[in-house]
Structure formats: structure tokens, C-alpha cells
Amino acid sequence: MNKVVLVTGANSGIGLALCERLLAQDPQVQLCLACRNMQRAEAARSALLLSHGDARIALLRLDVGSVRSVLKVAEEVKLRYNRLDYLYLNAGIMPNPQVDFKALFKGLFSRNVIHMFATAEGLLTQQDRVNADGLQEVFATNLFGHFLLVRELEPVLCQPGHTARLIWTSSSNARRSAFSLDDIQHRKGAEPYSSSKYASDLLSLALNRRYNSQGLFSSVICPGLVMTNLTYGILPSFFWTLIMPIMWLIRVFTNTFTLTPYNGAEALSWLFLQRPESLDPWAKYHSLTSGLGNNYSQPRKMDIDEATSEALYEQLLELESEVRKKMREEDEEVHPPGH
Ligand SMILES: NC(=O)C1=CN([C@@H]2O[C@H](COP(=O)(O)OP(=O)(O)OC[C@H]3O[C@@H](n4cnc5c(N)ncnc54)[C@H](OP(=O)(O)O)[C@@H]3O)[C@@H](O)[C@H]2O)C=CC1
Ligand SMILES: CC(C)CCC[C@@H](C)[C@H]1CC[C@H]2C3=C(CC[C@]12C)[C@@]1(C)CCC(=O)C[C@@H]1CC3
């Protein structure tokens, strides 16, 4: 049976490289690219068709940071497909990033230099904003929209006699200290990206606990440091051009500098081939590239615990019902009952 795979944020970077790799692995796969910009989605489909002329590639308009868009797209998916085999939760943003150059310079001469380059710990902050749904944008895009999508797609993901998979693109920048159960949207801090990625690690564990018995399995990956629109947005482009030779040099010493989207998609495409029962729900699967340029995946235990993951899940359910109530009220204002 042809596998049906939906990828969010599939029009560029790691998501697009993943689609390319999936088609190379299994030309029969039915791909569904869920993107917010249809022009970029069309361009991605054309690029994929250049190398895989017979590929079955559908496009969906999805702004994962908007509750209405998620609800609408989920209805469309349920109409188009009776079953979804893989849902890659990959779309992500890091708005207005700022590098702490003082910390970077200090780190260069410390024993933690490799760790600093692998995780960006202490190097990066972002400026977040509140979106039209009244949610913090980074939280809404990187986590909550995807959570809602999973919840809405339950009927096509949890089919009797079938297994289905959720695969989250997390990050080595996910950090416990950036996340708080008292502020899951990270309204107060300056590391919303770290917080949202840590929350995705927690959520994956909670989803496994709830859904494994229904044949739905969730995994988390880290692509390493990959040069994409997201990373190019961190520093001015002339700076990247200047330091690129240094980046390739660092790559010889650390396997987390995967650098190309193809390399970064290693763990995502590796997971596509694994039996879900053989995977560890506590592990993050890392895409790694050796000094000689060989790609491989490696599981590393995540710094998460069951109580926090369960508490986050409960808060997400609460937020979901608040958001749904708000949508109903807004709809009633536009179309009052009885009219
Ligand atoms: N690059 C890296 O080093 C690392 C990246 N990651 C994660 O990898 C994932 C992919 O990012 P990457 O490939 O690097 O960067 P890109 O910016 O190339 O890709 C991000 C994708 O997400 C899409 N997207 C963003 N916001 C939304 C939205 N609201 N609705 C729908 N789609 C959206 C983008 O669409 P559009 O083109 O319209 O902006 C784009 O297709 C992200 O989750 C990121 O956090 C994790 C660790 C390291
Ligand atoms: C080569 C150096 C002299 C200068 C590069 C410094 C930083 C810009 C980078 C060092 C570690 C990087 C990193 C990321 C972005 C760029 C760095 C901060 C990420 C945060 C990108 C998105 C992620 O999800 C994880 C990455 C970790 C490492």
C-alpha cells in the first residue's frame, strides 16, 4: 500500500530535503506538502518533479501558527485521505534572533566550545510577539499549531490495524532551563525558540503515552546545524560568507555541523524506515555528519520527565478548549444563531 506522508514547512530547507529523500527511498510515496505560501509550495513541487517526474505530490495551504488555518486544513486532509501514515511536524520559526557576541567570544576560549557550537547555549535570544489568536507566535507555530493538527487528524492517524507516525523536528537548542510550566508560551523570557523545542520533546513523550495503544507513535529528531533560511536569518549574509570556511573547518571536529539540508534530514529519513515499536520514546534521534562527510543517526536520551510532560499536555488541552470556545464565539458574532 502506498504510504501517505504529510510534511509541514516542506517548501524549503530541511523539509524540502526530506521530501527529496523520501521520494528517492520510496518513489510510490504519496507526499502532501503543507505550506503557508502557495507560490513557494508550487516551486518546491516543481523542484521535486524535476528529479522524480512521476511523483504524487499534493499541496495544502497551511499556516500552522493560525488556529483557523489548522482546523481548515485538517478538514481538507480528512476529506482527501482515509489514512495518514506519517506526519512530519517540521515547520518552525526563530524570529528576530540576536547573537550574544561577547558570550560567543568568551566561549571560543573555554572548554565548552564544542558544546556551545552544538547547542548555541547562552548565545541566542529572540524577540517574540503576540499573533492574531492572542498566542505567542513562536509557541503557536513551533508547538501549539502542530499539537492541534495532531488532535484534529486523530481519525486518519489512529486507524484500526495500522500504525502511524508523528516525527517532530526539534533542536539541540531545546533546553529545560528555557521552559517553564508557569509560562508554557514563554511570554516573559527571551528564549522562546529553546522553550518551544523543549516543549516539543515533552509533548512527544506525552503523545506516546496517550496514543501508542491506538497505533500512533511519536519521535523527535535534531537535524544539527544546517544552513537554511532560518540560520541565514541569524547573521547578516556577508558575515555568513566570511565565516563559511570556518564553519566547514569546525565540521571536521564536531559531527553536529551537518550544514546541508540533505545531511540535516538524515534522522528524519532514517526514521521513515524504522519499525515504530523499536524506537525509544525518551530518545532524540540526531542527524550527524562525520569529519569525512558520512551521515548517520544516533539516539541520545532527552532531559525530560514524565510529570512535566503530563502537566504540559494537560495545559495544552486546556488552551485548546479555550481557543475553540473563542472561535465559536467569533463565528456566532458573524453568523448569530437563528439567522
Ligand atoms: N537549520 C537548523 O540549523 C535547525 C533547524 N531546526 C528546525 O528545523 C525545522 C525546519 O527549519 P529549516 O529547514 O532550518 O528552516 P527553513 O526556514 O528553511 O524552513 C522552515 C519551514 O517552515 C515553514 N514555516 C514557518 N512558519 C510557518 C507557518 N506559520 N506555517 C507553515 N509553515 C511555516 C517555512 O515556510 P516559509 O518558507 O513560508 O517561511 C519553511 O518552509 C524548524 O522546525 C527548525 O526549528 C532545528 C535545529 C537546527
Ligand atoms: C563559526 C563561528 C565563528 C560563528 C557562528 C556562531 C553562531 C552564529 C552559531 C554557533 C552555534 C550555532 C547554532 C545555531 C545557530 C547559529 C549558531 C548560534 C542553531 C541555534 C540554529 C537553530 C537550531 O535549532 C540549533 C542550532 C544550534 C547551533
UniProtKB/TrEMBL annotation:
- State the Pfam families in the record: adh_short
Q: Where is the protein localized?
A: Endoplasmic reticulum membrane
- Keywords noted in UniProt: Endoplasmic reticulum, Glycoprotein, Lipid biosynthesis, Lipid metabolism, Membrane, NAD, NADP, Oxidoreductase, Steroid biosynthesis, Transmembrane, Transmembrane helix
Q: What is its main location?
A: endoplasmic reticulum
- Top-rank taxon: Eukaryota
What sort of enzyme, by top EC class, is this?
oxidoreductase
Q: How does it assemble?
A: Binds to the short form of prolactin receptor.
Name by which UniProt lists this protein: 3-keto-steroid reductase/17-beta-hydroxysteroid dehydrogenase 7
The lineage, from the top, is: Eukaryota, Metazoa, Chordata, Craniata, Vertebrata
